[in-house]
Design brief:
Radius of gyration: 17 Å
CATH architecture: 3-Layer(aba) Sandwich
Strand content: 25-35%
Distance between the termini: 41 Å
Structural class: alpha+beta
Length: 252
């Protein structure tokens, strides 16, 4: 990469407007103490199953995802216009050396049951047909085991839901050569009930609308290393506010 391109990216990182989710206060990041290369990580409203990913690249993924979310949130209210927010998020992510390999994310309305079904089941039914998205089931099982007041679900539920609307992603992240590949399910829902736990809210076709899509992207780790410090510096105290790691449960 030439110095002109690097400087353009550094200028973007330094000067682009960053929005803010509701502030949760400042907390120390709790690093997972076991099975350190298999982690459930939250980056604001994105849950990631980081499988066989070294810790430095775990942070690269979570921090770049957070940066792109904050850029998007400075431009669009995610809960008022989720589809446009996702577009802004995708554009911002591409400016941080993530290469989308699927084309634009497209969200489609899901067909809901006439009886109440957990959001987690709707998500897993969708993700089972998405190649290389096996981490979704492990994320759901991890969330089931964590108490709601644990830092990871607290961040995800607080930032992924607002009153009766939710917007969130479940991602599987794995090494591919020297880089890192992400396969993500992207979702948003509207209901006539207040949402407290994003994945475990219950929806039916008479009270809710649910939209879903997926995309794949690859982070060029070598190029991102050149802007890693700049991203960390710009995010500053947002990192402990919006990022948390816990051990990922074994194969679901």
């Amino acid at each position: 990469m030439d110095q002109t391109s690097l400087q353009a990216t550094l200028d973007f990182i330094e000067h682009v407007a960053l929005g803010s989710h509701d502030d949760l206060g400042k907390f120390e990041i709790t690093e997972a103490l076991r099975n350190e290369n298999n982690i459930a990580g939250v980056s604001a409203r994105i849950l990631c199953a980081l499988i066989d990913v070294p810790p430095v690249n775990q942070n690269d993924v979570l921090e770049s995802l957070l940066f792109a979310q904050l850029v998007a949130s400075a431009r669009v209210n995610a809960f008022e216009n989720p589809e446009q927010w996702y577009k802004e998020f995708s554009v911002s992510l591409s400016q941080l050396y993530w290469m989308n390999i699927d084309g634009p994310l497209e969200l489609h309305k899901a067909s809901l049951s006439s009886t109440n079904v957990s959001v987690s089941q709707i998500v897993l039914d969708f993700m089972k047909d998405v190649k290389d998205a096996e981490g979704a089931a492990r994320l759901v099982e991890t969330m089931k085991k964590l108490p709601p007041n644990d830092r990871l679900p607290k961040i995800f539920n607080s930032l992924g839901a607002q009153r009766n609307t939710s917007i969130f992603q479940l991602s599987t992240v794995k090494p591919v050569g020297r880089n890192v590949a992400l396969v993500s399910g992207a979702f948003h829902a509207n209901s006539n009930k207040s949402v407290d736990q994003v994945l475990f809210a219950e929806l039916s076709n008479d009270n809710s609308h649910f939209f879903q899509g997926h995309f794949s992207s690859i982070l060029n780790v070598g190029l991102y290393a050149g802007v890693r410090k700049a991203v960390k510096k710009r995010l500053s105290d947002r990192i402990p506010n919006y990022i948390q790691k816990e051990p990922l449960v074994d194969e679901a």
